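User: structure tokens for this one?
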Amino acid sequence: MRSAARLAAAAALLLALPVAGAAPASAQIADPSGDTGPVLFEADDVRHDRETGLVVAMGRVRFSRGDRTLLADRVAYDQRAGTVTASGNVRLHEPTGEVVFADKMVLDDPLKEAVVENIALRFTDDSRVAAASGRRTGNGITEFRKMVYSPCKLCEDDPDSEPIWQLKAYKATHDQNTDDIIYEGAFLEFFGLPVFYVPWFSHPDPTVERRSGFLLPSYISDDDLGVVVKTPYYLDLAPNIDLTLTPVLTTREGAGAEMRFRHLLDNAEYDISGSAYYESDADSAEVGELRGAVRSRSRLHIDDIWRAGADLRLASDDTYLRKYEFVAEDTLENRLRLEGFMGTDYAAATGYYFQSLRPDDRSGEIPVVLPMLDYSFVGDPGPRGQLWKVDTNILNLYRADGTDTRRASVRTWWELPGATGAGDIYRLFGSLQADAYWTNYADSDGASERGRLFPQVGIDWRRPLFRVSRSHTEILEPAVTLILAPDAQNTKRIPNEDSIGVEFDDANLFATNRNTGIDRVEGNPRISYGLHGGVYGKQGGLTTFFVGQSYRFSGDNDFGARTGLKRKLSDVVGSVRVSPGDRFDLLYRFRIDNASWSMRHSELQSSAGGSRLRLDVSHLLIKEQDAGVSVDPDYPFDEREEIRAEISSGFARYWRSGVNLHRDLTGGGRSLRHGAYLMYDDECFHFRIDYSRRFTRSRLLRPQDTIFLRVGLKTLGESGFPGFLKPHRGQ
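Assistant:
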């Protein structure tokens, strides 16, 4: 109703129209209110009684000025009383997108006040206000009597039924100067039943995207912390800056606080969050201590090529995050990076610092990397498709109580793709890797220098075969890779910092190096072969498989005995994918011992069903194996077998529930975690309750039950972080 009074001024212009009987009528006349811009007036019929001074417009009456439009079945202007009355399907369209509905609208002064009967207001987000009466003053204030507000959609089958939630008040005020809705004597109702009363309450109207104020609290019940209440307060400092402060109260561990600060600039952004708790439980080993954690992410876009970034994760001790933030992490990674993207070339300078949260790790032996320099050059393809690549790496790694390593590495790569007329596809390739190491050993005062020159040449070959039918396409593709290389020269004088873990599977069967990094290379001649096949339906379903193996011709290699690569003939690796449609999907990956034909590694991920009922199951089996190459100390992984499963159901339009479990299947088997949830989510209300029980143990932490409760009311408060930051120009 921001401009209802001004639009009423157009009614006065009826005096300038012809005498009764001019139908239909339309005009474009200057607005006598003093505002610039024409007023457009239309009506099916206009009558003017000069004796009484009454001008009446009837039938599809329309007033428009700028972006505002007033529609009604009948508009009467009483010259003597100085009032304009609009009745019958009165609608006022505001330039902001709001629409005001009324049975009757009386404007005492064309420029100041309006009184409305049976008013309804629809905001741009479809939130609605309805009241028995309303009064709009000239200073942007609208007063409502017996008012109801709700952002919830009405039931399509029963539009007269109560919405999920609504606010009712005997008196309410919409202040369009501050974009606030203020209630006096307000009730919060759910499904028509009052559940909460406040004598005074206010919230921003739906046109406000962000506003400082309290957000809805969250509640957690935990065996260690007791009842946890978090009440966030959001500060909208600027269009591109905000801050959220969250006091936290616990019944068992005292009080704490959380914060999150965000700042977005034209060419930079940063996001800083943290938490701190002061423990007061007499049973706690940290009683009287202040514990906390900090997390930050920042990015600086220097120009079209270069950008810089920093990621920070730190905690006061190894159990804080698991206890207070319910995060299970073993290592916190801190990283500084400067990187450049120059067409197909890439350059980066990176520094790493790691904080271990495992109680048995010694901090002095954890490496610090500063710097690590990378540069990758990719040349333009030649006339026959040949391609040159060069990758360089410089590493400086040191430890307070361990071995320090400096490394320089350059790897040159060349390849030539091709195809024959018979359908064979091949690729010739070769590489030369040059490495230099300078090492200071922790257990002695000595240092060593070592170099390595490692060449490789090879060829890839595959032959796609396919058959097309009306319903599907069948594909069968054998593939072979032959690689010739000398001995790897992976001696103990070359430290292994980045190639400790080796996971042999179908993804790296044809790789030139099955190790994960630079420090360990894979030598000696070998051949890898595999067969890929699939059936692809015309409607989108598919079934695929892959199986493969590799053979080393001569010499020994440096892989551990249980990695699947120690013997000349490797383990068999493969995968199967079955996805006939959008209601079922299965992926199975495996590694089978080539001598005993026992399963060494299997991984199953599957899902079945739809929104009404869905089952997700994953199973992991890893037999005891070595971490990496045999020249390094043994870091065996114990056998691991576990299953994760979740059954969920969207049992109603807005309702969903589920139960889940995570179970260790080794030995006698034991539960690691199980839980359940129930949630409701529609356009105006969100509710979720989660229950979980964790069975894992660590220092100062025991198995525990946790319950999370989250509630969100649209426009009043959401459980998530509110709004999006907007770039601030000129900073």
